[in-house]
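Teaching assistant's notes for section 4

Start the section by putting this record on the projector. Ask students to predict, before seeing the second block, whether NADH:ubiquinone oxidoreductase, NADH-binding subunit (Chain F) will look compact or extended. Collect guesses on the board.
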Amino acid sequence: MTRTTVPPVAGVGEPRLTAGFAEYGRLDLAAHEDVHGPIGPMEPAALLRLAEAIDLKGKGGAGFPFARKLRAVLESCERQDLGAVVVVNATEGEPASWKDKVLLTRAPHLVLDGAALAAYALDAEEIVIGVAEDDVGRPSLTEALRERGMPVPTSIVTVPHRFISGEGGALVNGINGLPHIPPGTKKRSSDSGVNGLPTLLSNAETYAQLAVAARLGPYEYAALGTDDEPGTVLLTVTGAAARPAVVECAAGTPLRDILDLCEVPDGPGILMGGYHGKWITSEAADRAEVSRKGLAAVGGTLGAGIIVPLARDTCPLGEAAQVVRYLAGESAGQCGPCKMGLPDLARAVDLAVAGSAPVEVVRAAAGDVKGRGACSHPDGTARFALSAMEVFAEDLRLHATGEGCGKRVKGVMGLPGAPDANPRKLTLDWSRCDGHGLCAHVVPDFIRLDGNGYPAFPATPVPTWLREGALKAVKVCPELALRLVKAE
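Reveal the predicted structure now:
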């Protein structure tokens, strides 16, 4: 599936966010009102009560309570005597996620309804909608804005399609004309966000859920889902699924129902929650329910509603290593744990996969970045890597023998860009190497010196983002012992 190809939509049970899709495809304003009915503005207290009654949490991954965000902005506006800004985060920097793109392309008015409700309650000065530069949802969103009036000026801002661009602080920076990276220090957008004003920032699906709840009311909204997590959930199912799709289901739906609907084959593991998520086994998936609580019970996470299953004929550790390399390359480069710690973690994972280092090396590298970053990127990457080491422990044991699991890395994780068409790996002619150590100084993220002072590096292909450094290491080797050759 390419980055601009929106997957089909499916469902288990009563549709809400996806209501009318089968009949209308894309819901223009007339179709939207026919399917969902009218909606009126709500006073701040009423909107707060609604969000609290349905326990609405952000659908972008962190799951922060929407009512707490709304109250924080209201209080900040009063305390500072300032206006507010409403921001819709529809950037989906996570390459494996498609749910927000589906909403923008097929139900844009539902997202706009939710943003308008928030803007009215806050007496906001403007609404800003952030979308990715792949332009998947922008045309539909632009058309929707032409079709209707909004309570305040509403604009669309395009951000680079990078993993970290979807982080809330990065989006606010981008809207303010700064680099599209998270701020170097933690700051609350509810105090100072877009143009220095208190800013309510939440995910596109969150606003769409708010619009549904405003029409249904808290009791009817809670007719679906669980007591702890009322309502429905949007899921993106890709990877080894024979029928990849964006699926809507009630919270509490058995995960196995979703996997069967998308024709997911049995495999070594399923990534839940995306690249900052966790792996679970197929056996755990049989016991899991689609909810934050239900997935946590089997060691998984709901995150941004991303499900990436693996097939049995692919190397799970190799797939995971590719993702860690990608995440290391997505660093904002503004704090040590991200700029230096994540490449070190990627190298540690590569070494473990190659059977050149024990899993303790990965644990140590992950421990060096956890809780120390300027944003959540180091923590999420460490969580992903450690989960892979745990769930694929048997494969790791096979790799530790030096022979591997015997499976190819097929590249099914949805990473952006085409697979490396010309993978290269380093080799060493031991009859020439005198242990000068120059190569380790040139590319320390990939080559280290062992206890005897000789170079040690993974047998896996050199990551593309370290290829230039590897070439330099080859050139500086005084004995011409190091080579960069084609990886089979």
